[in-house]
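Example 593.
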Amino acid sequence: MTQSADQVRRATCGELTLDAAGQVVDLRGWVHATRDHGGLLFVDLRDRFGVTQIVFDPHSLPQASELRSEDVVAVTGVVRRRPTGTENPKLATGAIEVGAQSLTVLNRSKTPPFPIRGDVEVDESLRLRYRYLDLRRPAMQRAIALRHRVVKAVRDYLDAQGFLEIETPMLIKQTPEGARDFVVPSRLHPGLFYALPQSPQLFKQLLMVAGFHRYFQIARCFRDEDTRADRQPEFTQIDVEMSFPTQDDVMTVMEGTMAAVFREALGVELTTPFVRLSHAQAQAEYGTDKPDLRFGMRLCDLSPAFAGTEFKIFAAALAAGQAIIGWAEPGGAARSRRDFDALTAAAMERGAAGLAWVALGSDGVKSSLPKVALGEETLARLRSLTGAGDGDAVYMLAGERTATQTLAGNMRLHIAQLRGLRDPKTFAFCWVVDFPLFERDPETHALMPAHHPFTAPAPGSESLSGDPLALRAQHYDLVLNGTELGSGSIRIHDPQLQRRIFELLGYTAQQVEERFGFLLEAFAYGAPPHGGIALGVDRIVALMLGTDSIRDTIAFPKNQRFQDVMIGAPGPVEPAALRELHLRIDVPPRAQT
Ligand code: ASP
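Predicted structure in complex with aspartic acid:
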């Protein structure tokens, strides 16, 4: 019996269930897998929505025998219950199959360079070379769909909070965010260049001057940094700016945004408000400004426990004004001496001179420290300072305070990793606040902003007097599971204060005029107090997916050398284009990779 077109229902490969039994359907998709079972041909047909099993009788549809993986086909057929015992409960469509009545091959596929199915390990350079095939793989389809839901949740939430999404230009001058700018030569203004924005920072501030009150943008940013693992030269931020906010107002909006994102996109309820730590506390207790709060093992200063110690190494460190930083590992006393040796080696690989440990076993105390170092009183203090009890281990590192905290923080993460405490399905957010306004460039020792030069000093630091490194900023970072998601600040809106900050940073009056004249001018026309933040979309999605690589969250990312190996970018341009731009290439041809 033939069906008229209007009786045939177009369906996706993910939707048919027993409810559709008896219906004639038209399915289109890719051949996912084929199986020849005693005269009948089973084809799994795949599209973005799922997989449906099609059964062909090769006698009536001989073309079916020629189907290969990734061919694109249209099939009509009747939905029917699968024979008892052959159902697949893991598949949404696993109760039914479609008995094919017609088959049209819409396009053939060459044999793909890697299988599209399952979680087969494929070399990343091959994946990126054939990204359109890689993106067909279920994991990538899920990642890109999740990213869509994340961005949609952000838009919906911020819209409901009265934020307007406003685009800012891509061809601009410069935003001093700390990295190099990508530059674009201007044909109409030979010898002059645009820069691609490192962020919309100055434009969003100008939108506040313009009275828009609450702005956001899913903003593409460009930074010409040196290639580093898991960075991209272009990335996406949730960029936000508000007028008349306190620091808490910005943080509350972002907590609401993150809660909406995790609820809508992942079905996870976050607890708000998030934990808040001062920058100093984060350094002292976690040895980093990006603490991972999924587990305890907080660092503490064990120097008081060893005051007056006869153990020479610790005594010398304390005499030199250094610190002994320690932490407790619950259950750590069960470690073997070999384990402790391996941990010591790990600490030394990270730059420590050694690692001292004490195992508070039920059968007595064992330690790498000599007996003289561990009197009853010292042990009691170690227990009370670290909170360690019977069955736990205590670790200690001695040296210059900040460096030793950093090392200890590293070892804390290492031990947590070994114990499986860094569970990617647990989401521990925190804010780090009370940052310094300035820091020193580790190489040049020049004063530089800890965030960016538009960050307002904290109350008490506005006079900018005294040691610049002691000044505090109204700057906050959002951290998730030990990863910084982004930074924000209350901004300077007073042109005089902004000029003084530029001066302190070493800009000449002329440089200030040239680079920021427009901003200072705008501030002279009634700029409202304002502040904001930007969070990295790629990173948020990566953490939600539990992947280490932001490349897995971007449809068409660059590789680790910032190349697009599929389209061949960066690439040379036509000599004619260079002539038009009055540009001459001065690179030996072989260096142009
Ligand atoms: N523009 C800053 C950045 O991209 C964030 C901000 O201060 O809003 O890091």
